[in-house]
Description:
- This protein is an alpha+beta fold.
- It folds into two domains: about 1-155, Ribosomal Protein S5, domain 2 (2-Layer Sandwich); about 160-260, Alpha-Beta Plaits (2-Layer Sandwich).
- The protein is built from seven helices and eleven strands.
- The strands form two sheets. Strands 1, 2, 3, 4, 5, 6 and 8 form a seven-stranded mixed sheet that branches. The protein has a four-stranded antiparallel sheet with strand order 9-10-7-11, covered by helices on one side.
- β9 (about 220-225) and β10 (about 230-235) form a beta hairpin.
- It is globular.
- The relative contact order is 0.20.
Amino acid sequence: MKVVVPCPAKVNLFLAVGPRDSRGYHPIRTVFQAVSLFDTLTIESSDHTEFVCDWPGMPKDNTVVKAMRLLSEVVRLPKVRVVLQKRIPDKSGLGGGSSDAAGFLRGAMAFVKAKPTEAELRDIAFAIGADVPFFLVGGRARGEGYGEVVTPLEDPPEQWMLIVRPPVDCPTGPAYSRLDELEYPWMDWGGSDELYNDFERVMPTECLLAKHRLLGLGAQGALLTGSGSAVLGLFPSKQSALRAKRSVENCKDPFSAWVVKSITGKESLRLA
């Protein structure tokens, strides 16, 4: 048996970070949106369990390996060979590792006879990482609590975006630490079209430059996603996003760029 799982990236259209609690964790309010930039996970029956990835920087104890380990503690998981093709850039706020882990949990259900409950699957997902539960839902959704409370929202009309990644990493832990040094209000939910991200308070200069670049190229709005370093620009059409991408690629700034569109919950969860 073989299952191919497209693992989509996400952007945060709204992200408000609450004050650190006694355990050192931050509650959040966020709006996730899955987009059409994918890693690809292939799971197939094997005589031994193995994980292979085409990205040389993949840590040995990565999110997919954690998902394999935690799922096997709850259900009987047969031996499988797992191959991951990486396309979503690391340390960019696009949720690639979280999506890969959720992709394994979804794809592995085809190999498991006694399946876990939805609650068990959500618990496994949250134990791997705060963004992983969203990728069991996909589409557009609200995230609350510490990321584990995910409420699906109605799929919006198709929205085209240009995602730009400056040549700088923004690890989540240090970004939270820098926010902890500031005083600011915990923003309540905004309107459906409000773009907001508290991590813009501490984003590197390169990210600010990327945001200004997108707005200068005609983006209707631009925003850091997650803790960065990727910045999204909203465009009225695929053609306008492609034109902006060509301009980004021709400028002297060494930005990586992807034209993507929003995808629905059904598209987020498809298996090949």
